[in-house]
Write a structure and sequence with these properties.
- By secondary structure, the chain is of the alpha/beta class.
- The protein has 6 helices and 14 strands.
- It has a single domain, classed as Metallo-beta-lactamase, Chain A, CATH 3.60.15.
- The model has no long low-confidence stretch (mean pLDDT 96).
């Protein structure tokens, strides 16, 4: 079954929310429902999709801002890494309290399920491998489904995630990219938390911030 991916750019920070669906069955899931998820919710409703889960790459406010609206509308569980388990309920930790010019303080109920490195989750007829990729935040994860990688704010097209926020660490970010993501096949498609998609091979050849390790 082919994975059908729709992108919704949400909120003031232009966060990519991804809707992954099987058109035949109407089963779907959401990765990173950002702030102001109205367009995403309208799409889900118009196509009568059954949302099985919300997967969070991490719990910064621009990625979790729409969690409660989507969870309540779809009656589905949320998955998040344990290192950020309390970020949904704490505006200081998810960053929304730090940016009053961008948003009011945001909270959501805790996630129903935790994520761990190497875990494989079966959803909508596909397998999603969890890769713990810290550096942008301590609980950042990437989701690998076949040749599609959802990298959150770890790896972007010719850029990388910032590491100057609480819990960020540059050495961890570089390690995550060089030792985890850059070991994937060159043709793996990367769907980042912001901006256009790319591939692992393109980033290995062209990303100016993180070069591949010499092997």
């Amino acid at each position: 079954m082919k994975l059908h991916i729709e992108t919704f750019t949400l909120g003031p920070l232009q966060t990519n929310a991804y809707l992954l669906k099987d058109d035949a069955s109407g089963r779907a899931l959401v990765i990173d429902p950002g702030m102001n998820p109205g367009s995403l919710l309208r799409y889900i409703e118009s196509r009568e999709l059954k949302i099985e889960a919300i997967l969070l790459t991490h719990a910064h406010f621009d990625h979790m801002g729409g969690v409660e609206e989507v969870r309540q509308a779809a009656a589905c569980p949320v998955y998040l890494h344990d290192l950020e388990a309390d970020w949904l309920t704490d505006p200081r930790k998810n960053g929304s309290a730090r940016w009053p010019d961008v948003t009011v303080p945001l909270t959501a109920e805790p996630a129903e399920y935790s994520l761990a490195d190497g875990q494989v989750i079966e959803l909508i007829g596909h397998s999603f491998k969890v890769m713990h990729t810290p550096g942008h935040s301590p609980g950042s994860v990437s989701f690998l489904c076949g040749s599609d990688l959802f990298s959150g704010d770890v790896l972007f097209r010719q850029s990388v995630g910032r590491t100057d926020l609480p819990g960020g660490r540059e050495a961890d970010l570089f390690h995550s990219i060089q030792n985890r993501l850059y070991t994937l096949d060159f043709d793996v498609r990367v769907y980042p938390g912001h901006g256009p998609k790319t591939t692992i091979g393109f980033e290995m050849a062209n990303n100016p911030y993180v070069r591949p390790l010499q092997r």
